[in-house]
Amino acid sequence: MVAKQIAARGVRDPTVLAAMRAAPRHEFVPETLAPRAYQDRALPIGHDQTISQPYIVAVMTELLDLRAESRVLEVGTGSGYQAAVLAEIVACVHTIEIVEPLLRRAARTFERLAYRNVFLRFGDGGEGWPDAAPFDAILVAAAPEHVPGPLFDQLAVGGRLVVPVGKRDQELRVYSRGAGGFDERSVVNVRFVPLVGKYGT
Q1: Would you give the distance in Å from CA 79 to the centre of its chain?
Q2: Beta strand pairing call for 118-122 and 49-51
Q3: What's the pTM value of the predicted model, to 2 decimals?
Q4: Tens digit of pLDDT for each residue in 82-101?
Q5: I need a labelling partner for 60 at 20 to 30 A (CA). Which of 122, 141, 161, 187 fits?
């Protein structure tokens, strides 16, 4: 998967490639879909949610420009796979999920696989995690129509926010926070499930 679907398509960061090799995607999909776990496609995980295709997971992770000491917030735990990839790189991942059954399932998976550096919270991800902020990197794994303001507020200076934005036509954006404000760039067109909650589409 990593060689043919990710590295061959331009993801170069060796740390990201190693994390993609280490995180067992088959453990994060429904058992009936395990034979398809390493295909480069999104898969349903129930509750109208999906696990993102591996290539997009790798691209978003690379765009965060992570360091081992980076403090990371993920909005939209889902299956837990993206958080697991992040946890292979950094010491601490905070992840929020609004669909409680998915959060409980992800928590059990993290426990079974001994991911001790992932911290979970039930709630509206658009509100962020104020008492753990600021974050060096924020990844949003579902698409809002507009980026929630609290996520900008909780991004540290020098940090990056990676988020798919849009209702029908979505684009993956990177916001970089400097001392004078935010720089924005669009990376690629994408298709994510809508962000659920106050800031959802």
Answers
A1: 11
A2: unpaired
A3: 0.96
A4: 999 999 999 999 999 999 99
A5: 122
